[in-house]
# Entry
Amino acid sequence: MIGVINYRTGNSQSVVFALNHLGLKNRLVAAPEECEDVERFILPGVGSAGVTMASLRETGWDDYLAQRVLREESPFLGICVGLQVLFDWSDEHETPCLGWLPGRVRELDRAHVRVPHMGWNLVEPVSDHPFVAEITAGSHFYFVNSYYAVPEHSPDMAGATEYGVRFAAIVARGNIMATQFHTEKSGPVGLALLSRFATLTFARTT
Amino acid sequence: MLTSRLIACFDVRDGRVTKARRFQDNIDVGGAAEVAVAMYADQIDEIIFYDITASAQRRRIDLDAVSEVAHNVFVPLTVGGGIRSLDDMHAVLDAGAEKISIDSMAVRNPPIIAEGSREFGRQCMVLSMQVKRVEPSPAIPSGYEVAIDGARVFTGLDAVEWARRGQDLGAGEICVNSIDQDGTHEGYDLPITRAIADAVSVPVIASGGAGAVEHVVDAFRDAHASAAIVSSMLYSPRLERNVTVREMKQRLAEHGIAVRPYLPQG
# Structure
């Protein structure tokens, strides 16, 4: 069972439609108490890091997910802002984030590129993490972002994209995976990546 | 690199896609979900769904039709028509849309853009504007005036000024619909599209008038648009021959425009 975390400004419904289309068992979950049978988590994201973090803290998701994802190593997929909040800090509204991965989130430079970065862009797999193993060369995914993550630990960057700067389109470390693009809205290549997340298994490290 | 987007824009009435000319004389194309599935299979980059009678009939948008489209296409979906409040926006996003398009309502009540942007983020708010060529004047220096309500009511607003204001209020994308060119197949209105694209830093969508691949090339190359609405070319019954997205992308690539490559069907 995949739990799709539902909070006020997420686009959780689109993720549910995509999972249903793929025939993957899933459920919207609005609070940690609803997650007894959940084996994998998806944190969709729309909106700002500040609003997302406030919403996660208010419902106790931050502590609950730390237990389930960091300690019990349940597979986790963050999407868009769901990628950005995994790092220590976001410059958007000066927001302290979850800090599961070292690094910070910066703003794209409006003086050089149109912001938001909106549309289909090329993603190049750059790590040997199994999440990106089946992405074929030349694959484009749908992005909408004004901020981008800069991982401090370079092996955490699993996919790279260019838009004024080269940034982390995909991050992956063990059971923690995330995409800056909207994988649920990236056509067949995006759906294939969602399926990949749903079927990967990880050996416990502890 | 970021590729130029091709968008199918559905003018929906009673759950069916229609095609107008200069915002009038709509003729039937097909059921919304059915046309959406065909466009998705042909690898369209994005879909816009306008409920074209919701605003005039003072009713809420047809959420069932939106949801039926959203269940079947896995590319971004923008929805507009009859959206008056944050509650309307929540309902549309819950039905499966990613972006909200505000047009006439933004002119009547500009703070609605700021409210939507604060609640959902700038990337969620598309300012759609209907523009018409007029004699340049001190009030309308660009020579393009903004109209609302299906191009029936003129506002006295300058198109470039309104685009700038929309961006300042929190719009993350601006769609420029030319009333003069709409459904003519004679090409986009390049001067106003370019004037707006150069005046704002958010992406701009060219809309109204595409009839040939060369027109789309002009929108991207000369008018600096990030995306182009190509609905007529894809399915207007008024054109002798429609093209497929696949064919269009191939020809755009031959012109040196970067597009999302067509994937072989698995």
